[in-house]
Amino acid sequence: MNVSRDDFVIAIRSAFLKKQTKQKFSLLSLIILSIITLILSSFDYKVVKSVRSGINEVIYRGSFIISAPEKIIKNINYEIRNHFGLYNNSKKLEEELDEYRSQKISLDILEFENQKLRQQLDDYLVSTEIVFSKIIIDNKSPFLRSLVINKGSRDGIKSGMAVLDQQYLVGKVIEVNFGTSRVLLLSDINSNIPITISPGNLLAIASGTGKDQAKVNFLKKTHFDKITNESLVYSSGTGGLIKSGVPIGRISNFDPKIDENIDIEFFSDFSQLQYVSVVAFDKVESSELEKIDVQTSEIENDILLDAPALRKKLDLLLKEKEINDQITNKIKLENESLKSQLSNDQLEKINKQKIIEEQNKIIKSHNINKDELNFLRLNLEYGEKCRKKTFSKKGFKVGTPEYKNCVLRKGML
Amino acid sequence: MNYFEKSGVLKYFFKLLPLIILFIAVLNEFDANYFGIPFLSFNLAFILIFFWTLKNIEYFGYGFIFLAGIINDVVTGTPLGLSSFLYMLICGATAYFRKITLRPNITKDWLFFLVTISCVNSIYYIISSYFFDVSIDYRYLLTNNLATFLIFFLFYIIFNIYFKKFFRKSDV
Fold it and tell me: Partner of A181 at 20 to 30 A CA spacing, among A402, A404, B110, B141?
């Protein structure tokens, strides 16, 4: 037993402590060095940061060169596949383009309205800095979904800035070097972005899965009925880093009866990214609001002066006029019918008033008859007491008002 | 061609080729996952380091492996020094295995490779998750571990043929 333990210790010592044949470093020293590097890299010291940044710069460039042949092969493969589906894609895209063109103008108008309303709410974020950059390393590792861009701190890139592919959100900057930066994609398992699901305006968090989709987290099951496979996902703007309304993707393959996981299919294809724009969003200062107003009006004017845009706008206005005319006609018709109804009602009212007056008269006459009846009844009983007798001075002459009063007073003279 | 053969440049290149492949693999973050199938993803760096350090060739030094680890960390964005540490652990395991093995064969090497990469991946997961707060999907790590283990057999045969053809006893 002791012998085998000794053998183990000797083997370990030989493996780790002694320098192997023709090796310049012992394993133990390198293990200690790697642990020291690991510990130092976890601290945020300026020296460590700058050393790390320097290493990153050199290696990123090297990696970009080494990856070039692989990228070329991948691109060729992509181009060939694209080529075969070119005709069908072109037709489909033309149809989509026509549709989008017609929607664009109305969207612009809505956007201006939206901006003004947001300004009133003091919640308007604008992109103050836009840096366009090229992707130099695109890792599709199963453990990490990130990419490296060729812009760094010298170009104004800061950690936390949003990264867009056209207008779609694809990730955010997590590491900034002097001339390069690392972007964490939305599909990475460590990515969490506050989102809004529309329609329904449901607030939730989009978390990366390490695959090509993200999933919706922190959403109550009671809202599941509001979600369909056509629901759109936007950034919610919570946190203030990314402005609200930046499109991210749409809900896909959601069926709460089968699976309660809600997957988000991104609008942007992360495997085909070549250029991205890095954007910082800042809140608009009150002094800048006027500038934005001026800019907005200028854009509006540009749209008005733009001939095709003007045509589109005219078409829209004509359609609007048609609808307004139809509404006016309907209102006129309704007005006339109401007038005739009103005159009928007035006539009816007058007739009813006459009937009421007649009935009132009858009621009054009925009341008079009632008084007389009462007098006659009392007269039978107390008439004797009130009547003037031949040998008495008391009493009143029959038919006089005094007599009537006496009868009504029940014979009290 | 004759000039290269006479001067030994070509021979030198073939001897350095495993190291060149290692550097290309880490610089390019090679994981053979171009088809998007997670089971196809394997760690070529682990295979290269395990095989060539087991053979203990002169041209595959620990210093270079350490440097390859640093490069891998920078390219993948993992904490600096982590891959170097893991690669050094593989080197330690192979050095130990070489010491205790009298008659090496493919089955023993293959099984020891599984034990080694399983331990190394576990350490990777623990350090990333608990010390650096980086989330890793352990299912991917497991499938990657399994795929690397399975494909090692194929690489072992190829590298063995290569080793016999281009290396001599003096190189070890």
Answer: B141
